Amino acid sequence: MNYKEHKSEPFWWGMFSQGGVIAALLIPIHIFLCGLAVPLGLIDPELLSYERITALLQNPLVKVYLCVLLIFPLYHAAHRIRFTLAEIGLHSLAKVLPVLCYGGALLGTAVVLYILWVLF
Amino acid sequence: MMLDSETTKTYTRPISKAWWLRDRGYFNRRYFMFLLRELTSVFVALYVVLFIYELFLLTKGQEAHAAFQESLRSGPFIVFFLIALLFALYHSWTWLGLTTKMQAAGRGLVKIGTKTLPPIFVALGSYGAWLVATCVIAYLFLTL
Amino acid sequence: MSDLRTIKITVLRYRPEEEDEPTEQTYEVEFRDDWVVLDALNHIKDHIDGTLSFRWSCRMGVCGSCGMMVNGEPKLTCAAMLRDYYPNEVRVEPLVNFPIVRDLVTDMTDFMDKLKAVKPWIIREEEKPVSEGEYLQTPDQLKDYKQFSQCINCMLCYAACPVYGLEHDFVGPAAIALGHRYNLDSRDEGNQQRQHIIASKEGIWECTYVGECSVVCPKHVDPAEAIQQTKVATTTNRLKSLVMPWGNKK
């Protein structure tokens, strides 16, 4: 067996682990507030009104925060999905899965940046 | 014992594709929980994609946004968010637990001089960070 | 008073000259409160069926030879008490993920090759002559790697690892943990020489942190955490070398 140090895996793993931390710390409360509390009427629906959110998005700090919140977890998920699919039967696709999964995350990154900085 | 694999007839029992349910005749609960842990990422991804879609709708104007907000009140969406929340919490729990365990192994990664920070402080730091982040986000969301 | 209690031991048997696939054989042996599974196997070999093959040596959890699957879990059979299973049947199978040579004996060539490949010994850029004395180390420096040095090469972690089961090229828990052990040793200067295998695709990056290797390790080596620590260190070093390419590579 000829082993060779892998140059790009540390990058993907680094993104995966950053995303893992961000998802662990921030995602549950977001799901609770926007996905359950507002729709169920536990808190004022005006908190998610068009006026309020678009006003918040004028603040560059909010944009940066949303970038962190949305982009890193995409790489986290891409990495886990890549390995899990191989582990539950798609082992023969082990070469294609990184391209598909990280490709998806890269696309997601572009979409987030485009929406936040071009459309807004 | 080193074998000449050319001349020795061996038998390897293949691992099943559903090894997380049954691995060579046995169910291992920890394999199953591992798979659930990895599955959390699917819900994280779905939530993020939905979030991005909502941002996109904001660019389409007030009505598109309001219509989607209204549809979020429907049963299927509530069920989805409930399941997603459970998986997200399971991700937080396992992730913070594993990072704590990883940092504490051997001599530990968090050192002050030549002394290692006791694992309990690392754990308090991880779960404490979760609590602080959760409260801060909730506070900002409600008051900004 | 019938106080001769017995326990059923079902063993996976494989006799390559007779059969193409393993079969099962059940033995009924006397149950003794102070017996381990290995005692029962030795009793079978000595008194019931001399053709049963298995490895063992020290009977005290040091040599690492008697690892087998006991009711589906990788165990040192010298440390698995029969009374923990009694009155239920005990199923003994060879360690999974390895080729079976005969009965409970597996081929460990793959592991031995990987173990050698991580160079689990102290590497010096320049050996100093014996006359200059030994390489000294403080108790604190010893503590840095001591836990990871407890490995007895019993290979239970390889049997526990589904990643190894699915991908035999994976360098695996014990070999990587031992590489980590020497990388953490203050006397060692061989980090760079191990990097190509430890940080290879087949090395740490194949691991998905199932964590079962650490659960089954009879010596509490914690290979899973050793691998994750190596991932952190490798990623940090890579980042450093990108941000500060002029920095010290060591």
Proportion of beta-strand residues of chain C: 5-15%
Overall, the morphology of chain B is: flat
Spans of at least 5 consecutive residues with low confidence of chain B: none
Kindly provide the radius of gyration of chain B, computed on alpha-carbon positions and rounded to a whole number of angstroms. Answer: 23 Å
CATH superfamily of the largest domain in chain C: Alpha-helical ferredoxin
Verbal overview:
The complex is a heterotrimer of chains A (120), B (144) and C (250). By secondary structure, chain A is an all-alpha fold. Chain A has a single domain (12-119), classed as 3 helical TM bundles of succinate and fumarate reductases, CATH 1.20.1300.10. Chain A has four helices and no strands. Chain A has helices at residues 9-37, 50-56, 60-87, 97-119. Chain B is mostly helical. Chain B has a single domain, classed as 3 helical TM bundles of succinate and fumarate reductases. Chain B is 66% helix and 3% strand. A two-stranded antiparallel sheet of chain B has the order 1-2. In chain B, helix 1 crosses helix 3 (75-104) and helix 3 (75-104) packs antiparallel against helix 4 (119-143). The model of chain B has no long low-confidence stretch (mean pLDDT 90). Chain C is α+β, with helices and mostly antiparallel strands and 250 residues long. Helices cover 34% and strands 13% of the residues of chain C. In chain C, strands 2-1-5-3-4 form a five-stranded mixed beta sheet. A two-stranded antiparallel ribbon of chain C has the order 6-7. In chain C, strand 3 (67-70) and strand 4 (73-76) form a beta hairpin. In chain C, helix 2 runs parallel beside helix 6 and helix 6 (173-183) crosses helix 9. Chains in contact: A-B, A-C, B-C. Chains B and C meet through helix 1 and helix 3 of B and helix 3, helix 5 and helix 9 of C.
Short description:
The complex is a heterotrimer of chains A (120), B (144) and C (250). Chain A is built from four helices and no strands. Chain A is mainly alpha-helical.
Task: Record the SSE blueprint.
The complex is a heterotrimer of chains A (about 120), B (about 140) and C (about 250).
Chain A: H1 9-37, H2 50-56, H3 60-87, H4 97-119
Helix pairs in contact in A: 1-3, 3-4
Chain B: H1 29-58, H2 62-71, H3 75-104, E1 111-112, E2 115-116, H4 119-143
Antiparallel strand pairs in B: 1-2
Chain C: E1 6-13, E2 23-30, H1 37-48, E3 67-70, E4 73-76, E5 90-93, E6 100-102, E7 105-106, H2 109-117, H3 139-146, H4 156-160, H5 162-166, H6 173-183, H7 191-198, H8 212-216, H9 223-243
Helix pairs in contact in C: 2-6, 6-9
